[in-house]
Predict the 3D structure of the following.
Amino acid sequence: VLESRSENTSWSLGVVAEAPGNKRVIAGVTVRDLSASQEASGFVWGLYSFLVAKPTVRDDLQAHVQVVLGIEVFDSRQLLGKGARANAYTFSPDFRFEDPWVQRVARDLCYSFTPELRITQVTCWVTGFVEWWRSRGQWPIRPEKFDVHQQVLDFVSHQPVQVVRASGTSRAGRARDFVFVSDDGKIRAMYVDVAVDLSTR
């Protein structure tokens, strides 16, 4: 995953994944800030219109891609899971979750994909965190008023992660598994998992 920050309210991401047959899938994703009305309304179902309503591949055979924010890559081979190389990446000093702008970008990533990516499911802890926090205070969280990292840890330690499909939403698994936390309790990186209508066979 490549990331770049511009002066306006968007990030450009280059998503690179292995597809069946050793083909490379390279897709551009632009993450933009929401409008004021969308910002105020919380979860906006219409933002997930890119999801495939009728997948051609069975759920258990669909490929999964993790889109990561907050790392700088040294080695383009496998970064996570079995077979990952040591020292293949480092945490980016530019990913500061206490920054309200970064909080917005992290949330907007959950629904900034395009139909041609054939995404069937989005698993994103940030959208659930936003809903949880809105019952406590104004979003995004202001670092001058709250310890943002501690608020995230309180949420991910006790809450499941939100899963969105064209058929509806559900919650499953641990939100804690989707964030990288340093020894001093700081959120250093995160990822969003997406299932795509491509077979792993």
